[in-house]
Amino acid sequence: MVVRLVTKNNFKIILKNKDNHQIDVDYELHQSALSQKWANKIKHLKRVPIDPIESGLDNVSDIQQIYKQFCEFAGLEPIRFDTFNQSTYNTLHKIYEQQHEILSRKKDNGILYKFHHSIHHNEAPATETSAITVGWGIKEGPLTEQFDCDSYYADQLEQNNIYLPWAELGKKPLNYWRDEEPNNQKRVNELCKPHKTFRAKFFISLKDSTPKKFTPNFIKWFDQYKKDWILKHKIKDYTEIHQYSAPLLAYTSNKQDLTGCKFVGIEL
Fold first, then answer.
1. Hey, is 76 helix, strand or coil?
2. Interatomic CA distance for residues 99 and 163, integer angstroms
3. Strand order across the 248-251 sheet
4. How far is it between the farthest Cα atoms of the chain?
5. CA-CA distances (angstroms) from residue 105 to 34, 108, 245, 261?
6. Which of 82, 211, 237, 262 is close enough to 244 for a disulfide, judged by CB 3.0 to 4.6 Å?
7. H or E element that contains 162
8. Which residues contact 99 (CB under 8 A, 6 or more apart)?
């Protein structure tokens, strides 16, 4: 991957389509403190290969085999599951959380993150690809930091623009509710996470997307926990845009269909 300076606020994303033809997409950096921090991080990763797990290039559908490999790496005795349903995935996610701090310090720990991606992939298998995701995983190292990303969310996603993905060790409140996690304040505060982890990854939205309205059932459920949760995490609010949108990093006037394209590089 080659990264070279173009101008202060303009850069190119290099892609290849299904026919292996190169596509160059011109971007202009969004004017915000968040997007500038992102651009500065990307410059430090200019010669680092992207991570296939974080970039959605690895097949993570075989949860049974991945869980077995995870247990071998962690030195755990696998739990036998007769079926894989939402209750199973919640149990596996809890195991992941419990092992994360220890295993994240070990070398060659890619299976830890593959396991995490496999859990979420199997919870809600995507029927179509809505984004081109690019990440460096553990290779970004100290470039991961805590930052209030919640305040930078765009009102909606626009085709081919670049956004910062939510990247927390947990779940968004709507996902927590849908996944039938425990109905208690302690677990909500522990597992539900606002967007405060700033990583040097990004995604290109493949289509326009306007945030959906929360259902009355979710609103009623979350009202029990929302006030305490917001105080716990010191944020202003959690709305539909925090669930369905993302912070804008860069925009483009190029609206060609990029479905099926693969990331090759970035010229900064």
1. coil
2. 30
3. 131-134, 202-205, 162-163, 248-251, 22-29, 10-16, 262-267
4. 56
5. 28, 10, 32, 34
6. 211
7. strand 162-163
8. 74, 76, 112
According to DSSP, the β-strands at 22-29 and 10-16 are antiparallel
**Type of residue at 97:** E
pLDDT in tens, 212-227: 999 999 999 999 999 9
Q: How many residues does the chain have?
A: 268
The full DSSP string for 213-260 is PPPHHHHHHHTTTHHHHHHHHT-S---HHHHH--BEEEE-S-----TT
Cα 228 to chain centroid distance, Å, stands at: 25
Alpha-carbon distance values, 242 to 122, 172, 209 (Å): 23, 9, 13
Domain ranges of the chain: 10-61+125-267
**CA proximity to 69, closest of 35, 22, 113, 7:** 113
- Report which DSSP code applies to 16: E
Does pTM surpass 0.70?
yes
Q: Which long-range contacts (CB under 8 A, 24 or more apart) does 221-226 make?
A: 221/177, 221/183, 222/173, 222/177, 224/185, 225/173, 225/185, 225/188, 225/189, 226/173
Query: What pLDDT, in 10s, does the model give residues 125-144?
Result: 765 689 999 999 888 877 78
Helix (H) or strand (E) holding 207, with range, is none
